[in-house]
Amino acid sequence: MDDIPIPVPAKPVRLMDQLRAFMRARHLAYRTEKTYCTWILDYIRYHNRVHPSTLDGAAVDAWLSHLANQRNVAVNTQKTALNAVVFLYKQFLQRDLPDLQFSKASRVRRLPTVFTADEAKQVLGHMHGLHRLIASLMYGSGLRVMEAVRLRVQDIDFAERCLIVREAKGQKWRRTLLPVSLVEGLKAQVNVALAVHQQDLQEGYGAVYLPFALERKYPKAATSPAWQYVFPSPKRALDPRSSVIRRHHIGEQQVRRAVAAALAEAGIRKHASCHTFRHSFATDLLRSGADIRNIQQLLGHEDINTTMIYTHMVGNHERGLTSPLDR
């Protein structure tokens, strides 16, 4: 259960517990919470565990410059650290920061690794069962691994041939493609998931976790078929958020390990991971002539510049360019 928030005391006293409670009251994604807390702890430890309310903009500058100069972090990593500490001061501590004058990171963002169509098929060919179906969704629909394992039964629209991604990064909903080749496999998996759910109900369980207190608003939704996970966990477990025994979705780390094993078996020596399937989805669409704006919407990118990086991944030969030596 990789995405279940750790418990926070009802009346938190420690700074980090108070910060986590503050973030959850504002419905920040748990991934964002973990990332921000990691960087804020790093900031506090850098200043010898001094309470951040006693530190000023110069302390923030010193830490961010240390990340760039001594730890050689990438540009985007430093931006994430900056976002975390700005959230700490402006949102949580209600203090404005002065104009910061820290050293900017110089390590540029690298181009993403992508599979060729043959490489993607090779990796998928060395996967089996649920793991193969989830990896196929990442490649065929452009899903992140957490978006894939969190799919609910109602998120698959077989009639419209699309997927509704509800629990996405930044809590932004989007529609994306449902590959025709996966329809039969997904229908069979939905039937399996609903059979597991029916068994849970017969044994006195069957209430799935619902986000944003929907369980209080719609008391019957948690046991309805529509809200059940398409890829349920093999076992029920105690949910630390509510102390209720329930069935969560399959763990993302299981999928990551399966992809890593398939990469090794396929003999593909690229620095690849689950996210490589999502990158490959975008570049394959671009090669097929898809409009960059459509790709942006399918991926759920807020900024078109984030999507534009895939234009660098389309080979020069695909643009009609050849080396003078070859000519």
Write the layout of secondary structure elements.
Elements: H1 15-25, H2 30-46, H3 57-69, H4 75-92, H5 117-125, H6 129-141, H7 145-149, E1 156-157, E2 162-165, E3 174-177, H8 183-202, H9 214-217, E4 232-239, E5 244-249, H10 252-266, H11 274-287, H12 292-299, H13 304-308
Antiparallel strand pairs: 1-2, 2-3, 4-5
Tell me the name of the CATH homologous superfamily of the largest domain: Intergrase catalytic core
**What is the overall shape?**
globular
Tally the beta strands: 5
What's the helix count? Answer: 13
Which fold name is given in CATH as the topology of the largest domain? hpI Integrase, Chain A
CATH class of the largest domain, please? Mainly Alpha
Question: Can you walk through the features of this model?
Answer:
The chain has 327 residues and is mostly helical. The protein has two domains: 78 residues, Orthogonal Bundle (DNA polymerase, domain 1); 183 residues, Intergrase catalytic core (hpI Integrase, Chain A). Helix content is 46%, strand content 7%. It is built from 13 helices and five strands. It has a three-stranded antiparallel β-sheet. Strands 4-5 form a two-stranded antiparallel ribbon. A hairpin with a 4-residue loop joins strand 4 and strand 5. It is globular and about 60 Å long. It starts with 14 loop residues before the first helix and ends in a 19-residue tail after the last helix. The model has no long low-confidence stretch (mean pLDDT 90).
Short note summarizing the structure:
By secondary structure, the chain is mainly alpha-helical.
